[in-house]
Design brief:
Blueprint (H helix, E strand, L loop, with lengths): L3 H6 L14 E3 H5 L3 H13 L2 E5 L4 H22 L2 H4 L12 E3 L15 E6 H5 L9 H5 L1 H26 L19 E7 L10 E6 L5 E6 L4 E3 L12 E2 L6 E6 L1 H6 L5 E2 L2 E4 L10 E8 L29 H14 L7 E2 L7
The structure holds 2-oxoglutaric acid and fe (ii) ion (FE2).
Length: 351
């Protein structure tokens, strides 16, 4: 659905709401190693932790868009099964997020419960890194499409990481090898849906403020509702800014694991989903996310090299395993026990 066709079917995004201004980065330019584009992307990853990735004009990008559209159709089929069937595939947090999460399982910032349904498809299952899992029928029937979507998303993530490695002065593959497609990880394709909102409250929170735990996220949206808390702004209702979904584009954001690895040079920003703005509030909101997690064998320790700051006296390196660390982070998100906040974003000039 992220093509023009899908945007034409949805009500328009209103002009008069506060938006975060983030750059639109051409995938083709990143593929060609264009230095201006690379610098612009690096800066966005430091300042906002978010940027728009324009997939048009790139051959792989165009195929990815078609695949993402198929994932939107798959989401429609999966959620149409209804909660009774989907509950038989319920997720098991915090250790296994694969499967269905009904609404009302997570706390939102206003102390209420979330309004978003999710289905997480496990990458290892789809690419054959682990024995096949039991999945709802539409997922089983579309295994090949999902696998292709994963391969394309993964190669786009690898291009982004290669450009970041150059800017950070790291070795080629120093970042990207930590989320290899062929090693087990908790990487997933997440299908999300929020029903039409009948409640009049403008800032009704569907998914509470959080940072993504993994390395990087590619997000496909058509209907608005995603908001980011800009850097150096207090978490007050007036400070949140919308990210306007754009046709032929993905939204990219940096996750907490990359902040750990880069010693805080890159930033993972607090984001949330609220009731879609303006006329869009009457639309069912679907999105598709590719959430990259590090391989289980990777370390959470800070990378050594380039402009990544070395540990200072008194600072301790992260020694928990990838699994332990992620379970600890997601427990925080689920229980709301620790207030989630943006992390990283120490300004450092690229090499
Ligand atoms: O649906 C969206 O636009 C955002 C979803 C999100 O932030 C997430 O799944 O982590
Ligand atoms: Fe997120």
């Amino acid at each position: 659905m992220p093509t023009e066709k899908c945007f034409d079917q949805a009500p328009p995004f209103p002009e008069d709401v506060p938006k975060l201004s983030i750059p639109s980065i051409s995938l083709l330019n990143l593929q060609n190693g264009d230095s201006e584009t690379t610098k612009e992307m690096y800066e966005a990853c430091q300042v906002d932790g978010f940027f728009i990735l324009d997939l048009s004009e790139s051959h792989e990008g165009e195929i990815l868009l078609q695949n993402a559209e198929q994932m939107f159709e798959l989401a429609g089929e999966v959620f149409a099964l209804g909660s009774e069937i989907l509950e038989t595939f319920a997720y098991q947090p915090p250790h296994d997020l694969t499967g269905y999460k009904s609404t009302g399982k997570l706390k939102t910032d206003d102390g209420k419960l979330d309004l978003i349904e999710m289905y997480n498809i496990n990458q290892d299952d789809m690419v054959g890194n682990s024995p096949p899992r039991r999945n709802p029928d539409p997922i089983q029937r579309h295994r090949e499409n999902i696998k292709e979507f994963i391969h394309l998303c993964h190669s786009v993530v690898t291009i982004i990481q290669h450009r970041l490695e150059e800017q950070l002065g790291l070795e080629p593959d120093q970042l990207s090898s930590l989320n290899s497609l062929h090693d087990q990880s908790d990487t997933s394709v997440r299908l999300l849906r929020t029903q039409t909102q009948t409640v009049t409250k403008e800032n009704l929170i569907a998914l509470g403020g959080h940072t993504d735990i993994g390395t990087i996220t590619l997000l496909f949206n058509v209907v608005g509702g995603l908001q980011v808390l800009p850097a150096n702004k207090e978490n007050l209702p007036a400070n949140w800014r919308y990210i306007r979904p754009q046709p032929n584009c993905a939204i990219v954001n940096i996750g907490d694991t990359t902040v750990e690895w880069t010693g805080g040079v890159l930033r993972s920003s607090l984001h949330r989903v609220i009731k879609p703005p303006g006329e869009q509030a009457h639309a069912v909101r679907q999105s598709v996310a590719y959430l990259v997690r590090p391989c289980q064998s990777a370390s959470m320790s800070r990378l050594v090299g380039g402009i990544v700051p070395s540990l200072q006296y008194g600072e301790r390196d992260e020694t928990r395993s990838v699994k332990e660390w992620a379970a600890w982070r997601s427990r925080q998100v689920i229980s709301g026990e620790l207030k989630p906040q943006s992390r990283g974003g120490i300004l450092r000039r690229p090499v």
